[in-house]
From TrEMBL, chain A:
GO biological process: lactate metabolic process
Keywords: 4Fe-4S, Electron transport, Iron, Iron-sulfur, Metal-binding, Repeat, Transport
Disordered as annotated region, ranges: 1-64
InterPro entries listed in its UniProt record: 4Fe4S_Fe-S-bd, 4Fe4S_Fe_S_CS, FTHF_cligase-like_sf, Helical_ferredxn, LUD_dom, LutB/LldF, NagB/RpiA_transferase-like
Species of the source: Rugosimonospora africana
One Gene Ontology term of the molecular function aspect: 4 iron, 4 sulfur cluster binding
Protein name, as recorded: Iron-sulfur cluster-binding protein
PANTHER family, per the entry: LACTATE UTILIZATION PROTEIN B
Transmembrane segments: none
UniProtKB/TrEMBL annotation, chain B:
Protein name per its UniProtKB record: Fe-S oxidoreductase
Pfam families for this protein: CCG
PANTHER family cross-referenced by the UniProt entry: LACTATE UTILIZATION PROTEIN A, UNCHARACTERIZED PROTEIN YKGE
Organism: Rugosimonospora africana
One Gene Ontology molecular-function label: oxidoreductase activity
Leader sequence segment: none
Any GO CC annotation of this UniProt entry: cytosol
Domain Cysteine-rich span(s) in chain numbering: 3-84, 123-207
Amino acid sequence: MTAKNPPPDRDASSLDAAGGRMTAKNRPLDRDASSLGAAGGRMTTPTIPERGGHPTFLGMPPFPRTAAEALADPQLRANLQHATTTIRDKRVRAVAELPDWEALRVAGAAIKDDTLARLPELLLQLEERVTAAGGVVHWARDAAEANGIVTAIARQHGTTEIVKIKSMATQEIELNIALAEAGIDVWETDLAELIVQLGHDLPSHILVPAIHRNRSEIRDIFTREMSKVGRPAPDDLTDNPGDLAEAARLHLREKFLRSKVAVSGANFAVADSGTLVILESEGNGRMCLTLPEVLISVVGIEKLVPTWADLEVFLQLLPRSSTAERMNPYTSTFTGITPGDGPQEFHLVLLDNGRTATLTNPTGRQALRCIRCSACLNVCPVYERTGGKAYGSAYPGPIGAIITPQLRGINQHPVDEQTASLPFASSLCGACYDACPVRINIPDVLLDLRARAVSHQRGHLGERAVMSAAKATFASSRRLAAAQRIGGLLLGRTRRLRGGPAWLRTRTPGWARAWFTHRDLAPPATQSFRAWWKKTHR
Amino acid sequence: MRVALFITCFNDSLFPEVGKATVTVLERVGVTVEFPAGQTCCGQMHFNSGYRAECVPLVANFASVFAGYDAVVTPSASCASMIRHYHPVIAPDRTPPPVYELCEFLTDVLKVEDVGGYFPHRVAFHRTCHSQRVLRIGDRPQRLLSHVAGLELVELGHPEACCGFGGTFSVKNPDTSAAMGNDKTADVHATGATYLTAADTSCLMHIGGLLSRQQPPVRTVHLAEILAGTA
């Protein structure tokens, strides 16, 4: 039983690690740094596609194949199981401290639903307030527009480098690739994102993007890569977490001090005050928000909350759900520009990129409530075994399985095979729904998207035939009884259908092969229940 | 009270003993149960696989066959979930009859916990996802099991964890499904139990299919079969 390997020997604090934000200042070093080790071994990554020499999620194979590749790595399995179980238990404790947790969840869902229902007016209000506070608001229909806006602003300032705060929206639009193609260097300053970037890798978790790297790999990456892009790692760098964190701190410091432009996302955008809110653990975000001359924030249009007071709910929901902390170390709020203090030029890029299209689905739109806490990843039995890259999207896990297909247009038109495989990447166990701080009924949305995937799909004739035959059989009890008699006659004498005979695995159609590769099956009964009842209950 | 048994297509065709045991238990506690012969399938496989149009006639048939009953009892938590939560989605104009998973019916409707069962074995109980997170039947099964004479109930490690069956998930994502299932069987073996039980045959078919290739032998039995056991 591979996943039953003893967990790596680490103390619970390392699972802040699963919370994983590496802190550049103000937190005990070894505690932060211990999180480096939490990830344990290296993921045998599904082959990472490239675009212009940069790793990209686009073009990955469908989920069952990427999942099978990830499952083949027992070290990864052990690491993920250890990391997700520990953060899971911590979250349960953090949540249990609040007697009104359920009320907070209901409130969070209600505020987000209200926001989504009034998005046009609230967005205009936000634009007005941000503009009044000296910011410039841009509207981006899709990834290309958003990337174009950011690139143009950077070029206007003649900058050749940008420091960046960890941001899901910019991962989604692959901003770093667009900027690299424009000849602009982007420096990720979140430690886990830095590890991913220096490793020419892809993130595998919303909150802990480098969850798949262990400390000795990180040392190797730092030693090999830092010198190519800035201050080299110390010659004698060990894999001691404290030393690794210090190396990252020194490497990043010169970039913070030198860069004129910063890019961020935002956790929340408050419509009635024009304020953006960023929660983080490391302090790198605050550096980016205060040191550069120009700040560009790329924010999905669903990140709005109507009023400042609404933050009260989300600032309780988010930290406890994500890092299992009562409060995250740094919460930055900023409204336009403040003369003589911080960036003197502020751009807000409001990103649609499939969100308006997602709103058209009455069941699916609740996915836009998501506050990117990643609690659903940590409780997901599928994610726990496959890791994040298998999902072929910046958004992995259960939330990714419902957001990615919608952002890619499944509500409007057929999608590619990889995207269409995502709603099926779930056993519908429902753990994600219970953990979600804004009560997104992920199983319901998965079911809705499966129906859309099926109605779009061409091919899969075998599956369609099975479903049609089953429907025809179940349409009348007489047909069902006849099928049971035939099944019982043909197979009922077998004591147990075993995978032993090779023909079950090699000569049978897809689904039977998939079953018998792993499991045996009880044969159909020689006498069905209904036949028995008919005989005994006349 | 007119009580109907919904056996489910799965138990009807593959595991008729589960149906017989359910009838035994219900009759032992004084319920006269009917078996409407027109019943077939609740449509769960189609619905969960994205074939909604194919569900419509199955849901309509279910509503017709079970119309007029005061209670429909079924030995399947996932089928009960399907009917209670998704039949109204598929056919908003038809009200499904009140459907109870067997444990719910015994403890909530009949207010019975001791059904006079005898099963002298060490038994591990798997909660199943639909039991715990959709129906939220809580500790009803354990309460019923606690009154079974001779039975030693042992707690599984990771009791809340999915076994990985997930209907067609088991064949669309077979490797992930088996990985989840093998973690479950490891937890089963760790208890030293000789039997594994649950309120759903489908999970048991998957876990049992894995256990069948492992040592030491552990048999899977539906909860109704344990409750029906006699000395």
